[in-house]
Fold:
Amino acid sequence: MLDRIVIDDVRPRTPTGRYPAKAVLAEPLTVTATIFKEGHDMLAARVCWRPCDSKQWGEAAMTAVNQGLDLWASTIEPTQLGLHEIVIEAWYDEWSTIKHKLKAKLDAGQEVDVELEEAARAVERRAQDTGAPQKKHLLATAQALRDDVTTAAERYAGIVGPTMDALMAGPLRPEYVTRSEPHTVWVDRSRAVFGAWYELFPRSYGGLRGVIDQLPRIADMGFDILYLTPIHPTGTTARKGRNNTPQAMPGDVGSVYAIGGPEGGHTDIHPDLGDFDDFAALVDAVHRHGMELALDNALQCSPDHPWVHEHPEWFHHRPDGSIAYAENPPKKYQDIYPLNFWPELDEDRQALWEACRDIFLFWIDKGVKVFRVDNPHTKPMAFWAWCIAEVQAEHPDVIFLSEAFTRPPVMAKLAEVGFTQSYTYFTWRTAKIELEEYTEEVARSYKADFMRPNFWPNTHDILSGPLRNGPVTAFKARFVLAATLVPSYGIYSGYELCENEPMSDANEDYMHSEKYEIKHRDFDSAASIAPFITLVNTIRNRHPALQRLSNIKFHRVDNDQLLVYSKVADDDVVLVVVNIDPLNAQAGVLYLDLAELGMPWDQPYEAYDELTGQSFHWQGASPYVRVNPWQQPAHILHLRRFEV
Amino acid sequence: MLDRIVIDDVRPRTPTGRYPAKAVLAEPLTVTATIFKEGHDMLAARVCWRPCDSKQWGEAAMTAVNQGLDLWASTIEPTQLGLHEIVIEAWYDEWSTIKHKLKAKLDAGQEVDVELEEAARAVERRAQDTGAPQKKHLLATAQALRDDVTTAAERYAGIVGPTMDALMAGPLRPEYVTRSEPHTVWVDRSRAVFGAWYELFPRSYGGLRGVIDQLPRIADMGFDILYLTPIHPTGTTARKGRNNTPQAMPGDVGSVYAIGGPEGGHTDIHPDLGDFDDFAALVDAVHRHGMELALDNALQCSPDHPWVHEHPEWFHHRPDGSIAYAENPPKKYQDIYPLNFWPELDEDRQALWEACRDIFLFWIDKGVKVFRVDNPHTKPMAFWAWCIAEVQAEHPDVIFLSEAFTRPPVMAKLAEVGFTQSYTYFTWRTAKIELEEYTEEVARSYKADFMRPNFWPNTHDILSGPLRNGPVTAFKARFVLAATLVPSYGIYSGYELCENEPMSDANEDYMHSEKYEIKHRDFDSAASIAPFITLVNTIRNRHPALQRLSNIKFHRVDNDQLLVYSKVADDDVVLVVVNIDPLNAQAGVLYLDLAELGMPWDQPYEAYDELTGQSFHWQGASPYVRVNPWQQPAHILHLRRFEV
Structure:
């Protein structure tokens, strides 16, 4: 079948097109394509889409948004979760072409008898496919087009207007229609894009019941997702000591990532943390506090994991008969056995992959819908493509966060094959140009079609940049950046206390890392920045502009310590000015694109600082700003026109 | 089948992957891909390629050229014309992984007994698939690896080196190999990339025999391709007069693009120009002068074309029974009937398309291998995809130049579906930033995988920018730009005489356009820049660096009237400094990337001006340059190290 019309570059899409792009339920999804054909004929196009489990297609007309680049667009709004199919249809718009020719010739005073006859025939053709009473109207219109008692201009006037536009809409002949290849889009719930995460180690709080006691504090700060590090039994073989020493001392609790012991594996709870009743109580309490629970999924085993004995075929075996522990020679991780995702026999592979999938299904059954996946880049892409599709086919509301800090193509591929969200390099992007370029890459490049960034200023593994021995001002500034550059962000507990002591100069670990010991914290400390965190989360929840990803735009300011960006959603306009110098006040003159911001160029408008409640009256594109980090690290400005 | 390894972004490729990318016979073709798998295992990869008419695969090992981006590359060199298939194979490189582990552990003083046994088993496995005497060597090596009389370091030393590397090369187990989707590449002859074109209207020279008389002059200037505007009979109905007036006067010759008359159509020669014997003589003479002939293919008909009567079904019919002439209402082109590439019946479409293809085959049979295709964007993409593939399947040495001056996606698509070369926007790119950005786009972006620019400072339709009423300096500068920014360029005859009179301020046509009348020129004029053209073409032929497309790099100079770029091919280094101000001398200090240019930073090197024969001794990255356009419009500098 030969395509009469070229339909290329359909977006959103993944780089290979083999996996679905991503969208969000009940949020506008802009579909674009490059559409053209030879010559001067006018075209029309539409997006046809359906949930893959439905035969009911929706349709939305496309318009040419950039004629010089043949770029067409339409905005649709998915109304159910899960996999959708999108097909673009384009056709030669014979009716518009006839009308255009008629008008151009009439305006130039040329003869149009033949064009009027063309129009009459087109109307008659449409009448054949149309039921009464529209048919009657069409046939009368055809007659009128041939009625040479009236002038040509009068006859043309009779086919202009919404009635005829509606009757003549759509292709006049089926052979004019060219269809694109089908494209797929996965529709997530909105929490997949917008959410504030808070991470903690349950054992530092006395277990699951102790975590329940923390919920009011965490919910009050405005967090949406409470993420727990692994809650499973852990091994004793080769257990690590405090500060990652090779030998555990009596009483040392070891790493929570050495999963599995005599008490069970990935579908069991460490007895010190509680039981399944406690877990159910926690899930319930989290929901009552308006949050969701996220579990940590680390597909690896301690030497004491039940699978080691039940399924030795799922591990790597060395020639001496031993099971291989994790190594990156000469480094050894004897407390961890990696799984062998490609055992010798295909049925072993299938059994292992199903067992791994079943871990997710098990916890979903216990009320968990969000998973933070540890080091997914150490497992095969083919496994994730299969596993996430299997889980989401049954549970399309499940969210997978990829904790891969690795090479950019690998991180992007994990997103392409199905991860809902991704950790990012934000943690190491500290200079202005780095923050601008990296945010552009993750929020506005082609990657945003399928990859959603989650910005973490710290994690339990990573204390970096200005936070290392850093002042409170650095913690506040990095927090504002994470929470306002992109809609999803998270912090690891202790951030509110500005915990800043690194393990060593050569290492990004925390001193006394919670991975290897139990921590006790005084969250009531006067030094806590919890009130600041609460305030920023309140602002995030109040402003739809801060809840979207690709609406960010950086603005110029002649000061390399000030980062200035706006986010706009419909009428909501937020402008953020962050001072990334934690020590000194910084000032500058902004260069704003007022049209982009919807602000007047010839009248004052208001810049209301949501952090301080101050209201500035600005006029023009170049207001002066000054940010003293010892007062506030940023202005989060709500821009609005004054009421007339 | 699950892929163990990710192989993405294989290049060169076309945007949709449905059409072949492009390469050149006997020139290096760099194939790249993003290749990775989970974890720390080492990988190996190779490019496998074959001409599609052969079962013989070539192979070339790939290397990781950017480990941080998982980018692998290999350079192959196609040895025959036509369609080729490329498949990338990647596998877990077990042998290198074992050796790497061994070395790392030995260096750290760790036990390696198990690793030595792993190595022995790998060697034994390879021995099974290997014939004697290699088998014997491998088995002895396995034995030595287990020989605990020797030290581990000695045993490791026994498997290091080229002998074992060769014996152990390639995947140890077939299930380790992942194959990419097949990609196709079309291999052209080198004239597809590198060539200087000269256009003329044969009727202005007394026909085909007259053109033969012009050949010494054109060949002496160094042109490679002589392109003739249409040589077919033309119509008299609605013939255009001089300067595109609607009414021809007696004696007016009309447009050569109103193809077809009583004497025949696209496969006939206008009787005023000569006959097929004259044509054969011209083809022969062109070849004897070391050039090739290019014909103009314009798939449209005058009302007097034989097809109008023989195949009325191939045209558009209006309701009044008339055949539709070309229109863009209110503009009318009554001397041209466009072909209807989608007639009602599919057999009519097929007959028309075959007739259009047969025009190419007819002239190929007469010795023509190069076609300049007029307005291909007014014919369907599906037609060109089919037609070019049909022609090139039989004649892979045929070159198609697309004369589409239209929207960028349409121009790129014509290249994607098969056109060998493309006219470009160069004609309208005159400011420094425009020239830099546009050249980057056509020579260095993804487009260069399949689209080859041909830069024309003028055409018979287009007199623009600084050439309009422009001085000789503008003609020289624009010529140097076209001839050195990219490897293919062309001029329309009269350029050497600096013909500069526009039709009007609102129009890019020439006054007294040769499209509508016969021109007589005095090529012996003292004002001719033919000697300058000859010199530049000589330099182009002497320097391989000027014969490639994607090797261009712009260098900084703090003067917006100076354009500075280098081209490097192996040891050949050319640096061009063009003054785009036709009136004033311009000077500046360059900022050269010496490493890119292969020049020393601590010693003098020579900048030999090929245009003047002057030799400059430069040292360092910031030489001073000055270009006085009234002497020469540019420096074309051959950079070379001094002999030690």
DSSP finds 15 helices and 32 strands in chain A. The radius of gyration of chain A is 30 Å.
